[in-house]
Amino acid sequence: MLAIVPSSSSSQLKLLHPNILPCSIKHSGPMRISKRYWTPRQQVLSKHLSKSNDETTDGKFPTDPATSTTKVPTVYLRGRKLLAKRLPLPAGYTGHLLQKTNTILPVKPKMRVPRHRQDMEDDEEDEEEEEELPAEVKVVEEKGRFEEILVWGHESVPSEDGEDVFVRGLGEWVGWANRIHAFDMPT
Question: Which helix (H) or strand (E) holds 19?
Fold first, then answer.
């Protein structure tokens, strides 16, 4: 089991901006990231664009780009253009960045109640039953929080209609979490 504890280093948690990239990175561990490599900018795009700046979903140019525009986070990573969709967390949800530690949460010892001789004899009969040991609880430390997730797509904004597996997966996860944590109300 895990227990979440606030960060010991600072009282104010940093506001983070998690990103889901459409690629595989075969590296784990710290890395010095330069603004040279990751500087998303807001780009004005037509709301009707799906695959590029030049086409709409039906293959025609937008009729009035001045009224049908939206700002989309855009970045170039290793020469590839990536466009993002912002997914705010639903009301009542908070996002936290956690770091595992090797610290084990101390367990409070159970108080022993004095027992009578008859109780002790009954216990000898039930020797097959063993006392359950408390589960080991490791501590995870809270390092930051977030209010939205950016899902990036190659040359297009990820869609909510089921095409993008990350957008669909996050939506399904939130719906599933709502169902398993809901209380059944008798009618």
Answer: strand 19-20
Q: Which helix (H) or strand (E) holds 167?
A: helix 165-180
If you search the block for the tokens 């009224």, which residue do you land on?
67
Q: What is the residue type of 18?
A: P
Is the CATH code 2.60.40 the one for domain 2-24+38-107+134-180? no
* Residue 180 DSSP code: H
Distance CA 153, CA 126 (A): 62
Rounded distance between C-alpha atoms, residue 38 and residue 25, angstroms: 15
pLDDT at 51 over 50: no
CA distance linking residue 161 with residue 159, whole number of Å? 6
State the pLDDT confidence band at 62, using cuts at 50, 70 and 90: very low
- Please name the residues in contact with 164: beta carbons below 8 A apart, sequence gap of 6 or more: 85, 151, 153, 158
What is the distance between the alpha carbons of residues 73 and 139, in angstroms, rounded to a whole number? Answer: 36
Go through the chain and tell me how many residues it has: 187
* Residue 122 backbone phi and psi in degrees, to 5: -65, -35
CA-nearest of 158, 148, 152 to 17 is 148
